[in-house]
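Risk mitigation, structural track. In case the binding assays with iron/sulfur cluster fail to produce interpretable data, a predicted complex structure has been prepared as a fallback.
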Amino acid sequence: MEPNNEKREKLKEFYFRIKNCRSCELGSTRINFVFGSGNANASILFIGEAPGKNEDLQGRPFVGQAGKILDGLLAGIGLSRNEVFIANVLKCRPPENRDPEIDEIITCKQYLFEQIEIIDPAVICTLGKYSTQLILNTTEGITKLRGNIFKINGRLVLPINHPAAALYSPSRISVLKEDFNRIKTVFDKSALDKPVLDKPALDKPVIEKPVSGKWALDKSALDNSTVDKAAPDKAPVPGKVLEVGKDQGSKEGAAGSGEGMAGSGGSTASAKNQAGNNQQLGLF
Ligand code: SF4
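Fallback model:
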């Protein structure tokens, strides 16, 4: 297998392994499981909170109004969705876009951690309170954390406001643009040479996050204290109440059953099928 395809195939295999998850109650209220999409070889991973109405309907992350803002911010620094990977803390939509419950995050976080291990990005941008607190293993609010750059196990973590925040407070778009420009600075340096990241060339010093034995992305290092439910600065999530039934699997069905997808190549038709399946899954 070509090295470029290795991560994509691993992600695909992982998707089919977990797409029918019912480990928490959200599994019975979702319409679609939202795995995440983008470039499996991305150097930058964006992590949001949870699918909203449109994401639940389409099975893709950030496809609503907040997604349009994210697209604009990416374009502003010369990036497209096909060059980054976008995932969420939760893979299923909380009913009526309510906040994720701590138990749901604890149950679902292993999937995100596995995605991080497979993609192995140099830079992680956490969008909003929930992903920031999960990845940095802190109860500090996003307002205090945004604008800083953290380094955990050689990986840079940039906490950023959730793009949905700009839907209700347009003035926040300038803060988001500022943070995205910082991503560009970090990403440019990351693309050059990893040791450059340790030099104080950035507008903010890199904060080496203390690691107590294991770092935040270690599966066993997080516990119930990770998410501060009382933190007041959650970005608003748009969308109305959506009546949802049992898992209808419309998108999952459209994406194919997955049987024989990995390792079934060889013929031209098979290669075309693989490419089609990759597109349907949003993997590049
Ligand atoms: S939110 Fe996560 S843990 Fe809960 S059912 Fe969906 S995939 Fe499973």
